[in-house]
Structures are given as structure tokens and as C-alpha cells.
Amino acid sequence: MNLIDELNREHIAEIAGDKNVPDFQAGDTLKVNVKVKEGTRERIQAYEGVCIARSGSGLNASFTVRKISYGEGVERVFPIYSPLVDSIEVVRRGRVRRAKLYYLRGLTGKAARITERRTARKVAENAAVDAQPTQKESKVDSAEATTTDGGAE
What is the DSSP string of 56-91? Predict the structure, then answer.
């Protein structure tokens, strides 16, 4: 075992013990809460966009998030284990076939959209919701049951 790798792993465990770093990849829409210092005050600013790349490993791992702000593309690179990154939240999972989505820089509008990755659990939940009768259907069924029971007597 390499001594530097061992020290990096210990340091990551120390940092990651405080915050939750979710599994995400390029194509996922992320909400990154960043600590911003303004004068003597410190506040948390949310930065939401599409992860277009992940690079590095271990302590040096970072990711690039791209968003469109007032019609202008803005990209920020965040080190995953930076003390300035308060939290990372995955808003939705994207279905892409590339590790680096730099081609999104040249696309605008609907062309820059990424389709959502559907997991087996989500598909099963949607099927269960479709199978359940809605309130209108259940009211109609109960009304039919009372009229058929009343007519039989």
C-alpha cells in the first residue's frame, strides 16, 4: 500500500464524515451549495446546473457544472472535498453516453437538453401508480355498486 494513498484515504474519510457526497456522473443535474464570504458575513449560495465533467481522483477529484444564466453559459469547477462546498444534491439523473459533455458548450436551447435516466425502481413505481384507480374511478365504481345492490332487492 502506498503511503500517500493511505494518507489521502484517511483525509477523505475525515472530510467526508462531515458531509454527504452522493454518487453522480456527467449528465446529472446537480445543486451545489457553496459557502460565499461577503465582507465579514458568510452565506450559502445554491448553484444548479448540469455536470459536464468529473476529473481527478482521491482528494484532488473535481467536477464541472454548467448552467445558463441570463442567456449566457456559465461553468464552475468545484473540488469535491473543498471546505467551500457545503453540500451536493442530485436533482435528476441524465442519460448520456460520454464521460465529458464539452459538446454542450456549442448547443443552445432544446438541443442542449439531456434526457432523464430512468431506473428500474422508478419504472416500477410509475407502473404501480398507473395500476391504482384514481379517485374518480373509485367513486364511479362505488356508485355503480350501490345502484346494482339497490336494484336487486
Answer: --GGG-EEEEEEEETTEEEEEEEETT-TTEEEEEEE
